[in-house]
Design a protein that fits this description.
Structural class: mainly alpha
Shape: elongated
Radius of gyration: 18 Å
Helix content: 55-70%
Number of strands: 0
Oligomer: single chain
Order of helices and strands: HHHHHH
């Protein structure tokens, strides 16, 4: 048992040394991917691949606070919201993206997922 505790303590120490964790504000402060020199989209995609949807949501939400025009992050966040079955969040973000993506193949994909999540939402009834 003590061996396992030692291994975990070493991993936390290594994470702190590489800047993944910080004790500045709280025992485990979130450090954004860009500060760790990691692509946030890639990190969120890895989280999604392993079923860690909440972690992907956190990475993408934080990314969009600092990069509000990041279309790729918005598209992946939309997919994450669909996985989380967050209907209000999905509809709100889809409404924001509609003027920009209307008529594009990606908009048809958004509408198809939207129809499954919110079949009575008018935004998803017409796929123009």
């Amino acid at each position: 048992m003590l061996g396992l505790v030692k291994i975990l303590a070493d991993k936390v120490q290594t994470s702190q040394e590489h800047g993944l964790l910080s004790h500045r504000l709280s025992p485990w402060r979130y450090v954004p991917p860009r500060e760790r020199l990691i692509d946030p989209i890639g990190e969120a995609e890895v989280f999604l691949a392993y079923g860690k949807r909440r972690e992907a949501f956190q990475v993408l939400s934080h990314t969009l606070r600092s990069e509000p025009d990041n279309l790729e992050a918005k598209m992946l966040l939309l997919q994450t919201l669909a996985y989380l079955r967050d209907i209000p969040g999905y509809c709100k973000l889809a409404r924001e993206l509609a003027p920009q993506l209307s008529g594009q193949p990606s908009w048809h994909t958004i509408c198809a997922a939207g129809q499954e999540l919110a079949p009575y939402e008018p935004l998803f009834m017409y796929q123009a």
